[in-house]
Amino acid sequence: MALLEIEGVTKHFHARGGKGVVRAVNQVSFSIDEGETVALIGESGSGKSTLGRLVLRLLDPDQGSVWFEGTDLTKLNVKEMREVRARLQVVFQEPYESLNPRMSIGDIIGEPLIVHNRTMKSTEREQRVRETLERVGLPQEAALRLPGQLSGGQQQRVGIARAIITNPKLIVLDEPTSSLDLSVRAQILMLLADLQRELGLAYLFISHDISTVEYVSQRIAVMYLGEILETGPVSEVIRDPRHPYTRALLSSRLSTDPKESLPRLRLLGDIGSPTDARGIGCVLAPRCPMVIDECRSQTIDLQPFGPDHKVACIRAAETSDVLLSGTSTGAITN
Amino acid sequence: MTETLLTVEELAVEFVGHKSTVHAVNGVNLSVNAGEIVGIVGESGCGKSTAVKGILGLLQPPGKVTGGLAEFAGHGDLLAMKHKNLRKIRGANIGYVAQNPFGSMNPIFSIEQQFRNILRAHDELSSKKLARERSLEMLTNVGIAGPARVLDGYAHQLSGGMAQRVVIAMAMLLEPDLIIADEPTTGLDVTVQRQILDLLRDKVVDSRKGILLVTHDLGVIAQYCDRVVVMYAGKVVESGSVDTVFSDPAHPYTAALLGAIPRPGHELTRLRGSVPDLRVVPVECAFRQRCAHAFDACSVSPHLRETQPRHLMACHLPEGVGHGAS
Amino acid sequence: MPNKATRKSSQLRDFVQMHKVASAGAFFIVVLISVSLFAPLPFDPEMPNPGVGISSPSASHWFGTDITGGDVFSRTIAAAWIDLSLALAGTLLSLLIGVPLGLATSVKRRWSDNLVRGMDAFQAFPLLILALVLVSLSGNKLYMVVVAIALINIPRYMRLIRSEVLSLRESRFMEASHAVGVPLPRNLRKHVLPNVMGIITAQTTLTMANAIVVIATLSFLGIGVVPPTPSWGSMIRSGSSNMISGEWWVAIFPGLFILLCVLIFNQLSDAISDFNTRTTR
Fold first, then answer.
1. In chain B, what are the domain boundaries?
2. Is the pLDDT of residue B40 over 90?
3. Is the dihedral of CA B25, B29, B35, B38 positive or negative?
4. How many Å separate Cα C110 from the centre of its chain?
5. Which whole-number Å values give the CA distances from C73 to B272, C232, C252, C258, in the listed order?
6. Which listed site, A279, B165, B311, C267, has its alpha carbon 20 to 30 Å from A258?
7. How far is A244 from chain C (nearest CA, A)?
8. pLDDT tens across C12-67, in order?
């Protein structure tokens, strides 16, 4: 069985003022194996961060189950869930915000041990903190400092240290490098890759930037307005995106090679809002350049397209033909 | 005949604190010609935003410009100007787009009122009707369908992308020759980013204006800028056409930066160490401690010099690092 | 741990350096209390001296004498200990009840909302009048003054803590500690409390300022600290009638001390708030 398996997870929020329902996450299912990195890509409003929190049970799903190591997390009580957290950790996007500004680095990193290993002696704990500091590439004297005295990259290393000290099996990384400078980003990505190898970690890597996840992920899931539209091995999805949304997303990347200009696929209009009422049909229908009537009237599920490549599009086979002309298929309106 | 809109030489900015002085900008040299987009790229703390604010006289105390000149075509040195005159130029001749669009808009006034205020501040179009027409035209120009609704509304009703478009419209309202945009798309979704950048680029190409674009995103530079200025620790370390700098970076920092771009199968450059403390006036090259090629001469801070036509860099290595990462 | 102690003392040094005026004021208060408590006064503050009568400030009576011949200087200094210690006691009581109350009401439960509403209703009363009534009904017992101060200030602490904790709850590091699995008691102790300490300290100095005024008001009205025990408020009262006849010193000096103490505590509160914001980034 997979390390993490989520089935039919749904989370709706009620917009304030009764202005409808925010369908943040809608019937999402996927799995992560031990030692594997699955990237979750999406723009704002896609629900990727909400999904991350659902996996961590920082939020409770309205429907569906979250299976971790064979146990359904949604059925656990607070105490049982706490025990699970030793093996299911998280690294957040904003390095500084995720650290208690008045707690020393050593205390921050050591806290998970205090919470989960009550019987551990303080000397042993300090030893573990020292080892972990070294593992994430921080100097020993950082243990006595406060978060505000470290750089952004160092702060993120602290966040990572805190996440690995209890030897977790799965870490949810919520945009861990988005707030960091480019050169620091590279260092952190390398650290994450090294740690995965050394400790056999699995990652759920949430990001909006495909270039970042390409480097560390094996599989990718593309999300839009609460639904997963395409999954598959990273190299294959990037080489041959089958869902029009994936294609649009990939083509809007800014290549760092000035001579390379990726053919743009533009979707109509702006990113939809998760409050737009949708009963049935594809979530991209209002904006899709390939849309046909059936797209709006049928329930669109993830269909297998190749070995391990799934797409939620009834015209997936024709995507490359229809959109091969690349540039400007569709005007920008509001 | 390329007309030079802006020339900046040896710009210096300091922040005087009660314990120490931070030399945030320590020698910025750049120029912007009509019809081109110049990008300033650098990581956080390199001084790019500070430099631009210094040029426009937008620095708040304890920051102040302590040296250099900023020659703006036909108007003289911006740094030596009286506040009154500088204020007239800002808005009318130079448009400024700040990073956070909501910070540039007043939440209490309607969008129309804010447009009218701009026009009125520069003694243009006192007629309400004409002002409205001009504003609607501007909003349509920036790609907003349904400009009337936006004009009658308020800032908080706009999405990030729309707000940035409105702010750009405000900056272009008086048809300035130069637009300075400080990280105009950071934080926006990639698709929206493309739209905003396309918009800016169209404006430049059409009407022979110039844009000075500050960003930390190398992709933006690669795809939208004609020339690039690379900043590190308050100084310009390299500048030239985007094509040459990207394919053949001369300065070790530029090479390291380009090497840090994540690409599958490509070994990321390890850049050790960290940015030097700007409270100390640098004598040696600011990049020395992290540079793999440092040698004796590097104990003196190098000046910008031309290694190829219109390609400048500040490094003691005769040819820079040669063939760079790509 | 050696390091925590050195960190605290260097924090203190930084504070003094950054806020010299406020620190000087704090030092003055400490000196005032010590002198009031321990130093021998030139004259017995509670002993009238009818033979002398009212006289203006002179070499032997630095602040002059009042109508009973009592030395204004000795009385003013002696009153410092009484007024300030009562203020301190009242403040501490407010703290000890207000802070836990604030923490309790920051939990998302029905009963905490009700408690907050109860506090709203309570604050609708004119609390100073309530204090007046309570203290005089008790027969001017000093402990009642302390209780009265507490009653007035507990709602303020409660609200402050509550709003601070509620906003803290939205912060990312609280979410992170939830993700780590930190149980509630430890969360409160290690994460919430240290981060509200700054606000509590700033509010405490403000409460002191308020308490001083309340005590002075009560004794001005002849309630709480009554003559012959010297109190700034009652001194002002007796001296106010002298003002008309031009004998300003009886009322002005105690008034000046009240002003000074309130100013100092307000300054301290500002300084602490400022220090807090500056040292967390």
1. 4-225, 231-325
2. yes
3. negative
4. 33
5. 68, 11, 11, 14
6. B165
7. 35
8. 888 888 888 888 888 898 888 888 888 777 777 777 776 777 777 777 777 888 77
Q: Write down the mean pLDDT value for chain A.
A: 87
Q: What's the confidence (pLDDT) of residue A265?
A: 76
Of A120, A76, A69, A89, which Cα lies nearest the Cα of C181? A89
> How, if at all, do strands A202-207 and A227-233 pair?
unpaired
Separation between Cα atoms, residue B14 and residue A242, nearest integer Å? 53
Q: By CB neighbour count within 10 A (0-12 exposed, 13-18 middle, 19+ buried), where does C185 fall?
A: exposed
DSSP string for residues in B74-127: TTEEGGGS-HHHHHHHHHHTEEEE-S-GGGGS-SSS-HHHHHHHHHHHTT----
Asked if C175 lies within 8 A of A92 by C-beta distance, the reply is: yes
Cα separation values, C110 from A14, A259, C114, C131, C138, Å: 21, 63, 6, 30, 36
- Angle at the Cα of B261 from the Cα atoms of B258 and B262, rounded to 5 degrees: 155
Contact B109, B161 (CB under 8 A): no
User: SS3 for B69?
Assistant: strand
Close Cβ partners of B157 (under 8 Å, ≥ 6 residues apart): none
Contacting residues of A for C191, CB less than 8 Å apart: 100, 103
Contact by Cβ (8 Å): B222, B246:
yes
With an 8 Å Cβ cutoff, is C11 touching chain A? Answer: no
pTM summary value: 0.83
- The helix (run of H) or strand (run of E) holding residue B72 is strand B63-72
B226 to chain A: nearest residue by CA?
A258
Please answer whether residues B167 and B100 qualify as being in contact, where contact means their C-beta atoms are separated by less than 8 angstroms: no
Please write the tens of the pLDDT for every residue from A73-104.
Answer: 999 999 999 999 999 999 999 899 999 998 99
* Residue B224 and residue B197 in contact, taking contact as beta carbons nearer than 8 Å: yes
Q: Are A243 and A313 in contact (CB under 8 A)?
A: yes
**Nearest-by-Cβ selection for B191 from A252, A258, A333:** A252
Residue of chain A nearest C182, judged by CA positions: A115
> Residue C179 is nearest to which of A56, A97, A116, comparing CB atoms?
A56
């799934």: which residue's tokens? A310
Q: Does C110 touch chain A (CB under 8 A)?
A: no
Q: Inform me whether the C-beta atom of residue C194 falls under 8 Å from chain A C-beta atoms.
A: yes
C281 to chain A: closest CA residue: A148
Cβ of C195 within 8 Å of Cβ of A101? The answer is: yes
Mean pLDDT to the nearest integer, B67-85:
88
Q: Which residue has the higher pLDDT, A163 or A211?
A: A163
Spatial separation of the C-alpha atoms in residues C149 and C128, rounded to whole Å: 9
State how far the Cα of B4 lies from the Cα of C136, in Å rounded to an integer.
84
Residues 6+ apart with CB under 8 A from A288: A244, A245, A267, A268, A282, A295
DSSP, collapsed to helix, strand or coil, labels residue C180 as helix
Cβ–Cβ < 8 Å for C50, C40: no
CB contact under 8 A, B260 and A186: yes
Residues facing B90 on adjacent strands: B94
B208 three-class SS: coil
Q: Does domain B4-225 have CATH number 2.60.40.10?
A: no
